[in-house]
């Protein structure tokens, strides 16, 4: 069976999410899932592609639910919202391409969106549903190995 996963890859801060957001804007009813853009202040947030709802992902290092990755701190409650949203979109919009932005170091170590994304990707592949992943180029091989497990 051919893969139904589309990949958008590239180095950090090269416009992967920006290019994808422009593509989604051209045909919004074709997509569901999450984008993780950066706002005008350089802060990352998660955005529901269907409703447009946004939740600030960046948080202070001393936040009670902060998750560290390198020099960044992200809010676990927002990741939990994102995981729930991915599951809901998978079920509610099976004919749309499900976007997961992005699979990164956190997901590879079982954090962030991991609790939902790996199972959803595997399920969507098994029933030939379209999925679009954003992955930085330096992590593509590791993500592919994880998907083959």
Question: Could you tell me the number of beta strands?
Answer: 8
Here the CATH topology equals Rossmann fold
Mean pLDDT: 94
Instruction: Please summarize the sheet with the most strands.
Output: 6 strands, mixed
The count of helical stretches stands at 5
Quickly name the level 1 CATH class. Answer: Alpha Beta
Q: Name the shape in a single word.
A: globular
Provide the structure class. Answer: alpha/beta
Helix percent band: 25-40%
Proportion of residues in extended strands: 15-25%
Can you identify the CATH superfamily? P-loop containing nucleotide triphosphate hydrolases
The rounded distance between the terminal residues' Cα atoms is 17 Å
Strand numbers in spatial order across the main sheet:
1-8-7-2-3-4
Order of helices and strands: EHEEEEEHEHHEH
Rg estimate, integer Å: 14 Å
Q: What is the topological layout?
A:
Layout: E1 5-10, H1 16-26, E2 31-35, E3 45-48, E4 54-56, E5 66-69, E6 72-75, H2 76-92, E7 97-101, H3 105-108, H4 114-126, E8 131-136, H5 140-148
Parallel strand pairs: 1-8, 2-7, 7-8
Antiparallel strand pairs: 2-3, 3-4, 5-6
Description:
The protein is α/β, with parallel strands linked by helices and 149 residues long. It has a single domain (5-148), classed as P-loop containing nucleotide triphosphate hydrolases (Rossmann fold). 36% of the residues lie in helices and 25% in strands. The chain is built from five helices and eight strands; from the N terminus they run E-H-E-E-E-E-E-H-E-H-H-E-H. The protein has a six-stranded mixed beta sheet, sandwiched between helices. Strands 5-6 form a two-stranded antiparallel sheet. A hairpin with a 5-residue loop joins strand 3 (45-48) and strand 4. Helix 2 packs parallel to helix 4 (114-126). The longest helix has 17 residues, at 76-92. It is globular. The model has no long low-confidence stretch (mean pLDDT 94).
């Amino acid at each position: 069976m051919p893969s139904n996963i589309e990949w958008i890859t590239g180095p950090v801060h090269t416009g992967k999410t920006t290019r994808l957001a422009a593509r989604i804007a051209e045909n919004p009813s074709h997509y569901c899932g999450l984008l993780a853009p950066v706002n005008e202040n350089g802060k990352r947030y998660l955005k529901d592609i269907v409703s447009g709802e946004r939740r600030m992902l960046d948080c202070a290092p001393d936040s009670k639910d902060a998750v560290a990755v390198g020099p960044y701190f992200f809010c676990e409650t927002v990741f939990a919202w994102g995981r729930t949203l991915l599951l809901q979109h998978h079920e509610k919009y099976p004919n749309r391409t499900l976007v997961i932005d992005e699979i990164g170091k956190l997901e590879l170590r079982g954090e962030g969106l991991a609790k939902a994304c790996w199972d959803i990707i595997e399920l969507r592949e098994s029933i030939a549903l379209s999925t679009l992943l954003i992955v930085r180029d330096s992590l593509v091989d590791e993500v592919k190995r994880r998907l083959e497990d």
